[in-house]
């Protein structure tokens, strides 16, 4: 009889113990700097002419490009940015046309 009660108690507790277990999953996102040398090489091969910026405009990180400056898309494996060539400088820009990196 004791064995029967013990077996019944174990049968009642085992599912509750299984429900109490939790699983934690950790995801690590690794960000790496783009290969600016490869981007510069790509831009040189594409041979886009340098756009002459308006008088008084200085190529500076954080500054938006003037509207007439043409933007070009980088290949997907080089990153999500677009680029332009302004006053002899290759610049990466964000979706708002702000310069995020100057590559010389």
Give a quick summary of the entry.
The chain is an alpha+beta fold and 104 residues long. 29% of the residues lie in helices and 16% in strands. The protein has a domain at 36-103.
Which key terms come to mind for this protein?
four-stranded antiparallel β-sheet; 16% strand; single chain; alpha+beta; 104 residues; rod-shaped
Give, in spatial order, the strands making up the sheet with the most strands: 1-2-3-4
Return the string of H and E elements: HHEEEE
Mean pLDDT: 83
Low-confidence stretches: none
End-to-end span in angstroms?
Answer: 86 Å
Helix amount: 25-40%
Strand percent estimate: 15-25%
Most strands sheet: 4 strands, antiparallel
Pfam families: DUF1236
InterPro entries: DUF1236
Protein name: DUF1236 domain-containing protein
Signal peptide: 1-20
How is the topology of this model organized?
Elements: H1 2-20, H2 36-46, E1 72-73, E2 82-86, E3 89-93, E4 99-103
Antiparallel strand pairs: 1-2, 2-3, 3-4
Commentary on this structure:
- By secondary structure, the chain is α+β, with helices and mostly antiparallel strands.
- The protein has a domain at 36-103.
- Helix content is 29%, strand content 16%.
- It is built from 2 helices and 4 strands.
- Strands 1-2-3-4 form a 4-stranded antiparallel β-sheet, covered by helices on one side.
- β3 and β4 form a beta hairpin.
- It is rod-shaped.
- The mean pLDDT is 83.
- Keywords: Signal.
